[in-house]
Amino acid sequence: MPCDSIVAELFSRCVQAIRDGVMIQRANRQDKEFHFQNWVQPRLVETGFAYEVGGRNSYPDFRVVQLTEG
After folding, report:
1. pTM (2 d.p.)
2. What secondary structure does DSSP assign to 19-49, as a single string?
């Protein structure tokens, strides 16, 4: 059941992925930094919230554009 809080919804999706056995994995041996972002992005897509992806050297990695929540 989706909720109005992107933080709560994303956290819930991450917990469910872990329970389902979807673990964080490196794409290849050279991927030493971005495996967590690569794992989180599909969870973010599952929420249905609109977001933008930042560049590899920018912060934050994902910017939620549908809701403002701090």
Report:
1. 0.75
2. HTT-----SSTT-SS-HHHHHHHHHHHHHT-
